[in-house]
């Protein structure tokens, strides 16, 4: 994963593990991501992290206040990776769309298990502040006043993180369960009595394809269209 470029806090120099590798905040973040992606967030503890980095369990507290602080740092790193892949475009709404896509790619395509574990967390750290500043700034470019921009930021954030969590949760299911759920949509037309559910029956042929792929892009476009058409002022 990409390094964040942040330096260890004063008095927290890099130390060597039993395996001879550098011990640092970044080493713990790397280990946490690897653990979550392979085994799920439930295995995260000072002991499992210690085993993953090759250090004593107490070494964690030289760099973090506890395991929860590691998770917050993981979430902030994911935001940073997305921001590093994003670049501003000429129009504010295109820039906003690409920012949402960059975050979505990191959460769902690159680290789905980790996304499910940390998407609800507020990090309060550098990269989260960067993404708040960028998003509010783009909304202000679009003509929204500060109060309205704050409301729109909340809606956009909830949409993005909710979509990421939904899709990450589905990917965390076993292949057998995912296949069974997909098959249920494929067979919807055969199971819906047209006389009792005419609208569902009419939509069934379309849902067969739609429910097997992500709705992120179409939902994003719907969200942005509504955003662009909405009032710019809270008054």
UniProtKB/TrEMBL annotation:
PROSITE patterns in the record: HTH_TETR_2
Domain of life of the native organism: Bacteria
DNA-binding region location: 45-64
HTH tetR-type domain location: 22-82
Keywords: DNA-binding, Transcription, Transcription regulation
Name the record gives this protein: HTH tetR-type domain-containing protein
GO function terms (MF aspect): DNA binding
GO biological process: negative regulation of DNA-templated transcription
Organism: Mycolicibacterium chlorophenolicum
